[in-house]
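[recover] target loaded
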């Protein structure tokens, strides 16, 4: 039995080099224990939707918190079904391929001989796809028409799945050039951050957002936002270590390294966030600064998580966290209203994360994750850094342009921006019929109750038992 296991592991590791000179083909070589690792990671990554929901709802006003949680549900339902129908096929299809997209595996299914690796890989990649869409929801919070958002979520899969094929599909031009993105700093986070920037710009600022300065608006629930951070922190370990795609052969070693570099990067980002906040707030510690710094550090280390040393991860995370912190006031200066800082955290930090691979990558040979190339700081030449820069620019331009095109088309049929009176009343009441007391809705109802486009009786209060109230009269 021992000899059989050794033979299997030798076969797995010896075949881990891509045939075409591109990135490692390790994703295609799966044993049952690899599949167990991948599926478990996918389940954990799925819980990151809870983290995104708590974080985003905690950053917006209380009259919009249910709406943002609903958008996270929609991202899974609509984003999931479109990824199953065509998104996975555009990334990994084999019926027809060119350097920019693939065809095949539409409405994913598989026979008994290949359903193990196909379904494992599909579910893992599905968790990535829904994450890329969810990133955008926070940037559009508090003024986006829910119906328009549903349509955007239904179509947004294409924003992610095509560039994912460039870097992870064997047909992709970035893959063939030797670009590296192990855990998705570029394909997931930079794509999501670029989409968030365009969406926030097209929607415009919330009503009165910059009328009295550029300081962040009060958070609806700082506690929920911090709980969301912890959920994302936990999920990120699976995000990174699961991206090695298994534990057989030498994979388990790199999965362990990915987990350590991921957590170490968050240490660096957290320290930077605390220092930045202490200086900016004159001795106080701002919650959003710390959250943004930690998430920015995690975003920046993800792409090269398995090919960094632990101390390098701290440096990379510290820089990523700093970019996230400084980016938020910068975009506010541009009047790009992003309530959760997604443009900075998933845009600027991710751009740095893609470039950092070209500087710090270890040219290991066990899994050939870097095709034998090393980063500029590890004795390599400028080729890898140049390819990483090309990847970062390609992801940004694609995501920005396609997001603009989708929202522009959707806006022709359903206005993407809520009307002013709807924004004042809050999306919870207008879109979901939930009326919460003590958050300014009653005052808005008094002022806008006669508005021809809104029924004052449309919203029902929450947190009370109306039958008991009638009995007590």
């Amino acid at each position: 039995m021992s000899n059989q296991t050794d033979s299997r592991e030798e076969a797995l590791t010896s075949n881990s080099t891509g045939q075409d000179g591109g990135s490692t083909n390790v994703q295609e070589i799966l044993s049952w224990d690899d599949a167990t690792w991948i599926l478990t990671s996918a389940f954990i990554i799925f819980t990151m939707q809870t983290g995104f929901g708590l974080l985003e709802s905690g950053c917006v006003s209380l009259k919009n918190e249910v709406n943002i949680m609903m958008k996270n549900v929609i991202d899974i339902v609509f984003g999931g079904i479109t990824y199953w129908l065509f998104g996975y096929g555009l990334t990994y299809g084999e019926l027809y391929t060119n350097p920019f997209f693939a065809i095949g595996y539409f409405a994913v299914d598989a026979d008994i001989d290949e359903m193990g690796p196909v379904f494992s890989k599909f579910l893992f990649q599905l968790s990535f796809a829904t994450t890329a869409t969810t990133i955008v929801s926070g940037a559009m919070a508090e003024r986006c028409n829910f119906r328009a958002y549903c349509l955007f979520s239904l179509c947004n899969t294409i924003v992610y799945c095509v560039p994912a094929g460039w870097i992870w599909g064997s047909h992709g031009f970035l893959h063939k050039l030797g670009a590296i993105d192990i855990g998705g700093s570029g394909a997931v986070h930079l794509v999501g951050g670029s989409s968030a920037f365009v969406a926030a710009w097209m929607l415009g600022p919330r009503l009165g957002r910059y009328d009295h300065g550029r300081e962040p608006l009060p958070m609806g629930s700082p506690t929920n936002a911090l709980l969301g951070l912890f959920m994302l922190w936990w999920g990120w370990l699976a995000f990174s270590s699961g991206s090695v795609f298994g534990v057989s052969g030498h994979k388990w070693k790199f999965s362990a390294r990915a987990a350590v570099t991921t957590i170490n990067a968050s240490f660096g980002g957290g320290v930077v966030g605390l220092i930045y906040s202490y200086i900016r707030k004159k001795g106080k510690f701002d919650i959003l600064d710390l959250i943004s710094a930690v998430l920015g550090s995690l975003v920046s280390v993800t792409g090269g998580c398995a090919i960094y040393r632990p101390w390098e991860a701290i440096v990379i995370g510290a820089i990523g966290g700093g970019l996230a912190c400084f980016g938020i006031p910068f975009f506010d200066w541009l009047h790009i209203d992003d309530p959760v800082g997604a443009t900075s955290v998933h845009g600027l930090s991710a751009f740095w994360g893609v470039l950092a691979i070209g500087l710090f990558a270890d040219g290991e040979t066990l899994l050939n994750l870097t095709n034998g190339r090393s980063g500029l700081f590890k004795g390599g030449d400028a080729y890898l850094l140049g390819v990483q820069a090309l990847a970062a620019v390609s992801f940004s331009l694609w995501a920005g342009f396609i997001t603009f095109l989708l929202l522009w088309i959707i806006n022709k049929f359903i206005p993407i921006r809520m009307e002013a009176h709807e924004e004042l009343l809050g999306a919870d009441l207008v879109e979901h019929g939930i009326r919460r007391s003590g958050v300014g809705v009653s005052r808005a109802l008094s002022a806008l109750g006669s508005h021809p486009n809104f029924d004052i009786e449309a919203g029902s209060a929450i947190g009370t038992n109306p039958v008991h109230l009638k009995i007590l009269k």
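[recover] notes: The radius of gyration is 23 Å.
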